[in-house]
């Protein structure tokens, strides 16, 4: 593992079924409430598979003249007991996921729960 | 050096440059050693190394007629800042998500 290729991963169990978590992630009013997005943030859905996975392009003003695009992906898996195994991956602007998908980047694992 | 976070990210956006850094992370190498396993010409490799040096991500050390390249960890500060910012950002948000899920109707 090197520091040149890294993405942030948070995972843990949420005490709600995937359908409910999905609503918290996709309905703007709910999203605003828990995410409290920074003022300069522009979110665009890149890919969505209902109740399973969702990717947002996360665009910020950044430190230079050009905006910085990173990618935030939520993956939801039912645990069979009405709860959800939740995995959030935040990929820095330097690592476009699609261009690199055949060669998974080493990840920095962080437990969310 | 004056490289902004955005500049560093632009340099790192190139998959060949990331692969070069991966190889240099393990050991110091000459450009010739580095080129093994890469399907790129000598001038192309020199060009990538020049960009990486310009960004402060790679430094060189001369040894007689050889030039050895190595990763310069200090050049990765902007990436580490980015990672640090979001490593601090998400746990609180995930806690808020958990709170919201308790309040939401089924």
Folded structure, characterized:
The complex is a heterodimer of chains A (113) and B (106). Chain A is an alpha+beta fold. Chain A has two helices and six strands; from the N terminus they run E-H-H-E-E-E-E-E. In chain A, helix 1 packs across helix 2. Chain B is an alpha+beta fold. A three-stranded antiparallel β-sheet of chain B has the order 1-3-2. Chain B starts with a helix and ends with a helix. The model of chain B has no long low-confidence stretch (mean pLDDT 89). Chains A and B meet through strand 1, helix 1, helix 2 and strand 5 of A and helix 1, helix 2 and helix 5 of B.
Strand order of the largest sheet of chain A: 2-3-4-5-1-6
Say what the CATH topology of chain B is: Arc Repressor Mutant, subunit A
The CATH homologous superfamily of chain B is called Winged helix-like DNA-binding domain superfamily/Winged helix DNA-binding domain
Query: What order do the helices and strands of chain A follow?
Result: EHHEEEEE
Q: Give the strand content of chain B.
A: 5-15%
Instruction: Give a count of the beta strands of chain A, DSSP E runs of length 2 or more.
Output: 6
Instruction: Provide a count of the helices of chain A.
Output: 2
Domain count of chain B: the total is 1
Helix content of chain A: 10-25%
Describe the main β-sheet of chain B briefly: 3 strands, antiparallel
Give the distance, in angstroms, between the N- and C-terminal Cα atoms of chain B. Answer: 54 Å
**Which oligomerization state do the chains in this entry correspond to?**
heterodimer
Largest binding interface between chains: A-B, 41 and 39 residues
Please report the number of helical segments of chain B: 5
Count the strands of chain B? 3
Shape of chain A: elongated
Give the class of chain A from helix and strand content and strand pairing.
Answer: alpha+beta
- Class computed from helices, strands and strand pairing of chain B: alpha+beta
- The share of residues in extended strands of chain A comes to 35-45%
> Can you summarize the main beta sheet of chain A?
6 strands, mixed
């Amino acid at each position: 593992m090197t520091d040149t290729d890294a993405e942030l991963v948070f995972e843990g169990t949420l005490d709600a079924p995937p359908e409910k978590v999905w609503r918290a992630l996709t309905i703007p009013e709910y999203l605003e409430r828990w995410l409290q997005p920074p003022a300069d943030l522009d979110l665009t859905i890149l890919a969505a598979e209902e109740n399973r996975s969702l990717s947002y392009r996360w665009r910020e003003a950044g430190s230079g003249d050009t905006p910085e695009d990173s990618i935030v992906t939520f993956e939801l898996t039912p645990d069979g007991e009405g709860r959800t195994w939740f995995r959030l991956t935040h990929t820095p602007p330097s690592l476009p996921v699609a261009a690199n998908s055949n060669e998974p980047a080493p990840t920095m694992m962080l437990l969310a729960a | 050096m004056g490289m902004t976070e955005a500049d560093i990210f632009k340099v790192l956006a190139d998959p060949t440059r990331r692969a070069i850094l991966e190889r240099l992370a393990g050991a110091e190498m000459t450009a010739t050693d580095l080129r093994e396993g890469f399907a790129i010409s000598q001038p192309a490799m020199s060009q990538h190394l020049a960009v990486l040096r310009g960004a402060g991500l790679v430094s060189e050390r001369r040894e007689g007629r050889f030039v050895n390249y190595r990763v310069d960890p200090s050049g990765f500060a902007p990436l580490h800042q980015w990672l640090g910012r979001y490593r601090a950002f998400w746990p609180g948000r995930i806690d808020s998500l958990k709170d919201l899920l308790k309040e939401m109707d089924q």
